[in-house]
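Hey, does this match?
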Amino acid sequence: MTKQKKQKGFSLIELLIVVAIILIIASIAIPNLLRARMSANEASAVGAVRTINTAQISYDSAYPTVGYATTLGALGGTACAPPTSAGACLIDTQLASGTKNGYVYTVSGVSGTPAGTYNAIASPSVPNQTGTRYFCSFADAVVRSSVTAINTCDSSITPLQ
């Protein structure tokens, strides 16, 4: 008499069913994860525009003969002992580079002597993937949003609620 050894493990059908269930769960979870990431990028962009506003106000106070900074680089800086109007060290170096968390940041529309106005604009680096909204602010320090690209920020753009 020969004894048959009882095999242990999973059959191919059982493994295929488990893989199918995992794929179904992933297909439900991944779009939600992408939406959550876009929402986080947009929240970060709003915070960065507020940071730029605060930095511009501080810059204008520290350098009244210059007014507002003309570039993000002037608000940033790496050599801060002492800070200067060319590198005030008011924002972090990543934001000063113009790209952070899926958004591209620009300062434009700086005019006057001393500079009495500016536009801070945040645009998604890859629209509809890193974010769906554009954000901006100017000297009134109100953050505004739009679903279309923003070239110049003014009071006609809807303020954030």
Remarks:
- Helices lie at 12-62, 72-75, 93-97.
- Residues 13-146 form one domain.
